[in-house]
Amino acid sequence: MSTFYFKTLILGDPDTIHFFVASAFNEPGEDKDTYFSWYKEVKVVENTCDLEIDAITSISADLDEIIQMVDGIIYFVNPLIKEEFELLEMVIPDIFSAKHDIPLIIIFYDQNGIIPVSVNDLLTKVWVNYPSLEAFVNLNPKEFHQVLQALCMAMISGETPLNIENAWMRFPIFIQMANVYYDNKNYFYAAQAVRKAALIAEIYKKEEYFIFSEQAAYLFSKINLYLEASNILNDIDKQKSRNFKKLYAEAIIREGNLSFNNQEFEKAASFYERAGQWASIELLEKEIIDEAFKLAITSWVSACKVEYAFRILENLPRMESIYLLKEVLVKIKAASEFLANSKRYNLAKEQLYLAINKYQSLTLFDELKELTTKLTEILIQIFKTQTSENELYAAKSTFDEIENMWESYDVERTDLDGTLKVLITSFLDKYNFGMATILINKLNFLVLKQDLTKLSAEVEDKFKAIKKKEIEENIKKGVKILSEFVKAELDIIVGMNNKKIHETEELMKQKKYLKGAKNLQEQAKFLKKIGKEDIMNRILIKSLDVLLEGYLYEEFFITFNDLSKDNKKRYLKEIFPIYLDKLRDINKLENYQRIDRVLESSNRVYRKQELYDESKEISFIFIENIKTEAIKTLQIEETLFGIKKANKLLKKARTISSAYLEKEDQISINFDRIYKEMAEISINEENLPSALKYNDKIEDRAIKSEIHKKIDKLEAEKSAIRTQRVDKAREGEELNERLSIIENRGREASGDRDIEFKRRKAYKRAYFNTALSHITNREFGEAIDIYKETITQLNKSQKYNLAGVSLAVISLLLIHENRLQEIKQILEETIGNLAGKLGRLFSGTFAVTLVEYNLQLKKFQEETKFEKALNFYKNLPLFEEELNLLRSLLGEEIAEIETGEKLTREEVGRLSRLSIELDQNFGKLQSEMEGEEAEKENLFRKRKAMKRRFYKPILDLLKLHKFKESATKYNELTKTFSKRGDFRSGSFLMLLHGLCSLKANEPYTLIIKNLDLYLNSLGRNKKLVSDTYNIRLIQVLINVKMNSLEQYLPKIKSMLEVLPLFEEEKQLLDLESK
User: Fold this and answer.
1) Which residues form a coiled coil (predicted)?
2) What global pTM score does this model have?
3) Any residues with CB less than 8 A from the CB of 902 and at least 6 apart, and which?
């Protein structure tokens, strides 16, 4: 099984093709400005095709360029629109003219419905006029895979596309066209037509398949396409197929023979070599292989490219290589002789060196002797030619090669003294005595060697005399030129310096100090490069003045380091008064960190140059700036953290003082103002020890006294607070004692609750029905008034326990309305209206004791205990409406009150219609459920790959059961995927948003609103996304929930389980109402 990667193009009306392909793939594709793109995998028999499908949707796209880059094309055309047909006929020639064959399929399609034209007529028109094309008519988007499979088969096989489902209709057309082509002697097209007919016959298992295959092979062989003929018969007649392969190899050799006869040796060698290699793989017939390789070797030698011939020999057995080398020796020598006679000495030499290396490696010493002798002869020719043409160094190099041949390969020596004499004389003329001496030692005849040695000595003496005289004259001229040059150079430098200084002054007027300083520094670098260091220092000093004027201290220190050692100290002393004035204004800088760095660097620079008095002045300024910064810090950060920062600054100030100042100077420095600020902050923070510590450090008695008074005042306040805490602790103990009493009495009341409830129920119609009705209708004010009356009536009849329960219900209503003060007022009024003993009886009931306890808890703001105390109300004999009020205060679920009402006829009809609609929706979802389940694993892998980037924050929220926040995050993430064009993931996230919202008990209307906002944001993709499995599923779920149709929830849950959910998201599948 193989995988192929193809790029496919879709052409036609932009709206039509986008609608069709988006419907076929159930996704809108990725918008890439001039086209939409999809990536799909298509199975073809045992192969897989990974397709990039691009649908052109803009007329600005460059079709000429795009067509050259694709492997297959699908063209949509509406035959009812004449202009579309004409455009197709214009585009087809461009496709056919591409550098490679591009399979083309035409789809006749009308977006508005079925095309009212004969399908056979449309198909026949295409098949007859364009035999290499395939066509589909009235294709449904769901059947688009048929087109892709046909196109993929064509791209894999290199054949023209064929629709297998209607191939039987093309069979007679192919036969008819084959006959026409054959009559016109267009054998290639006839063979193609017959091959297509054979393919169709094979598909439909017709006996004519074998006949048509042999006919196609015969037609291909008529135009020497033996390989195509062999391939056709490969599975039908092995022997005939092999014969055609043999004919193919022989045809290649014949092509080589033609080229060899035309003296195109390289071309011939390529043919022979290709024939040999192909035969060694496909035929395995030694006779043809040996003949082809032998001819190839001979041709490469004839082409004077023995390296290619030797490359072939490397793949042959050793003995066979030796045999062939012996045969081609004569040709190699002849080729080198031919090159030498053509004055192509270097190529001749190169060919012989390659041959010598090859023959030597195979120990062919006799043949090697012939080759080295031939190479030496050619080298001697080259040596003589180079000497006569005065190519002295090349001739010397060639002579070294000749010597190497004599010594290494024992080639017979030749007398070259005559040529060497000419070469030596030429070197002496060039005054190259070293090379001449080396060559003199190579001479054979002693007399000649002595004569040339004497000549060399005379020429060398003459050369030395001439050189000495020339040097003396040059020195005289040089001194004069140098003095003139020095003067001219100084004039130029002065002019350049003046120009740079003028430019800098202009920049300073524009407040561009850094640019002006850089201008001078560049000039200083130039002066240093030419060795004018004295002038360089003067320019650098000018640059430092500019930087100081612009308060550019950092650049000042960097540039200062470039001054010479002698100039550094002198400059600092001269500039100090100005520098000190600048430092006094240093608080103009934007932040203290920079001030600190500048002052510290200034101190370091002056002390390094041993200018200690000047450093002391800088230290005073430094300490004052630190004090200012400390006060500023304390005023901004009036906290203990601010004091900590200020202490760090003071520590630095003291360090500078002790390091750089004398003792008498240190005494003059005062930090009272800072310590005062620290003491006041400590007082505000109620940190008395720190306040006392900083106050003790203040030297001014008036300030110290003022701070002492504030400390005393704070101490008095803290003493009062401690007293209050003791009182509160005592009251807390009393509350704990009362809680113990409440718990005991609560247990007693719980045991008597049923009896007391029967007593209250007996008075329900007389006293409580109206009040309970008001509670149900949330008319709490009216209910309170009625309960007040019941307290009076029940106290009169000495039903103190029941009266106390009414007071407890009033307290619950007033707590609900946040009117706690009124509880105390009603309690006091009720007890006041009763005589002393009767008031104590009423106050002693459990209900009244509980109300008083809750009032105390509210007084001391004991919220936790207050909420716990509300639970004791459950021990009272309360009616259901009163209990629901209590549950709402405790945040518990309120019990539903059964009304026993029946549905009206209209409501029954509405629910019936809704049920039918839901059943229809469930049918659609059920049909798509299998497809969703099949893609679950693939989609989960994609989600898992993006888990860290997109989903981790949401999953963390889900772990904490924060469903509302998770819903918001899913909604935001939906927008991200929609911008990327990934609407499938976007719709899935909207489903998760809906499930989280339901878990968070969000209103159904809000969920529906968010869903509508998402769909409306998609523009023309809204309809496509609205019909997806995910969107329809959440819409059905909301409908079911809104109408309390709980019987559908198990079915919806099973549909949700096929989705690619993370483990944290699976809790959202619990759809039961909360």
Assistant:
1) 704-731, 922-949
2) 0.34
3) none
